[in-house]
Design goal:
Blueprint lengths: L1 E5 L8 E5 L9 E10 L2 H8 L10 E2 L3 E9 L11 E4 L12 H4 L14 E5 L3 E3 L6 H4 L2 H14 L7 E5 L3 H12 L3 E6 L2 H9 L4 E4 L6 H8 L5 E6 L3 H10 E9 L11 H6 L3 E4 L5 H13 L6 E6 L3 H10 L5 E5 L6
Parallel strand pairs: 9-10, 9-12, 10-11, 12-13, 13-14, 15-16
Antiparallel strand pairs: 1-2, 1-4, 3-5, 3-7, 3-16, 5-6, 6-8
Helix pairs in contact: 4-5, 4-10, 7-8
This protein binds NADP nicotinamide-adenine-dinucleotide phosphate.
Length: 339
């Protein structure tokens, strides 16, 4: 089969479109012919060596993928050939709290991933795609959507609460859709005016531009009667955390998710004096993915897909993601290469 493999080192020059053997399912595994895979900022970090400098290579990249079961292992009960499935980001996190084993079972880093014609999944770490959702749509769920879901649900998001979102990437736009479905009030920051408008059209209650309004924490306090947001989905990391700490209400929750804004310094005084809850989020379990998919169906939530690329154009798609040109998700359509 064809696959995108990182081999021989880090950097785009080491990302190869190459032939590898189709894997054989073990007793508890299913073999899935992929139809779509979505990109995450993580994929850029992995290629650059910033995600895990000790990553074992060669590795097929990609954590998110949806396709059709084509073969099953001898002990597989949950799926049959022909079923449409989406894989879990972590292949060993089924339910309960995150464990060391689960954290080391991620697709596209610890195990071969979804930028390939076929992927092996544990039978317990896949989910049937609900009717009405396409492969392309389902392929956006495993990482970005589940991360936003986990952050919102862990913080008890609900009516009357104010949620702050940073940017209009995959995690933040799922955060917007899910938080609105929970009847929360959503404030959103974007560095681009047109994206701000699009976020408002999607339901954001108020938006601001973090480039023209670098002191956006003041804007958040103004928007909340001086109180601050109840929950922030922090995708910026150290570069934005200081401001998020100024924008959060006393006793509020900051879900630590991403690293988009680079380095920065943090004043621990703000954390303790505001009694802020800092909650690290690492995607989520299969149980959470199931709960999220039911919620998506119930509220008829359709993923925001900026564009699809033929999967042969992965380097171009990654460059688009790196430049932040997108609004929502970027998806690869996986077309069989034959032979
Ligand atoms: N912890 C986890 O489990 C987990 C899971 C998923 C993702 N992540 C991390 O979360 C982050 C977001 O992931 P993603 O897939 O949603 O990324 P993405 O789709 O690439 O989102 C990028 C967008 O974020 C916005 N942005 C960039 N720099 C910003 C800044 N300094 N301040 C505010 N917004 C900024 C921009 O939106 P505008 O153009 O609108 O400004 C940009 O288009 C990444 O660091 C990723 O690695 C972590």
């Amino acid at each position: 089969m064809k696959a995108w493999v990182l081999q021989g080192g880090f950097g785009l020059s080491h990302l190869h479109w190459t032939d590898v053997p189709i894997p054989t399912p073990g007793p508890h595994q299913i073999l899935v012919r992929l139809h779509a895979a979505s990109l995450n900022y993580r994929d850029i970090l992995i290629v650059e060596g910033a995600y895990n400098p000790r990553l074992a290579l060669p590795r097929i990249l990609g954590s998110d993928g949806a396709g059709e079961v084509v073969a099953v292992g001898s002990q597989v009960q949950r799926f049959r050939p022909g079923e449409r499935v989406v894989g879990c980001f972590m292949q060993s996190w089924i339910d309960g709290p995150l464990t060391d084993e689960a954290a080391r079972s991620t697709l596209g880093a610890d195990r071969d991933g979804t930028f390939a014609e076929y992927v092996l999944l544990e039978q317990d770490a896949a989910l049937a795609i609900p009717p009405g959702y396409s492969f392309v749509q389902a392929a956006t769920w495993p990482c970005a959507a589940l991360t936003a879901w986990n952050a919102l649900v862990s913080a008890g998001c609900g009516p009357g609460q104010t949620v702050l979102l940073l940017g209009t990437g995959g995690v933040s736009l799922f955060g917007l859709q899910l938080a609105k479905a929970y009847k929360a009030r959503v404030l959103l920051l974007s560095g681009q005016e047109t994206k701000r408008q699009r976020a408002e059209a999607l339901g954001a209650d108020a938006t601001a531009n973090y480039r023209t309004l670098p002191e956006w924490d003041r804007w958040v306090r103004e928007q909340t009667g001086g109180r601050g947001a109840d929950l922030i989905l922090e995708v910026g990391g150290a570069g934005t955390l200081e401001r998020s700490l100024r924008a959060i209400r006393r006793g509020g929750t900051i879900a630590l998710i991403g690293v988009l804004a680079g380095r920065g310094t943090i004043d621990p005084m703000l954390i303790l004096m505001k009694a802020v809850r800092l909650q690290g989020i690492f995607v989520g379990s299969r149980r959470q993915l199931e709960e999220m998919s039911r919620f998506m169906v119930q509220h008829a939530l359709v993923p925001v897909i900026d564009r699809c690329y033929p999967w042969t154009e992965l380097p171009t798609a990654l460059e688009c993601l790196r430049k932040g040109e997108h609004f929502g998700k970027i998806v690869l359509e996986i077309i069989p290469q034959g032979g």
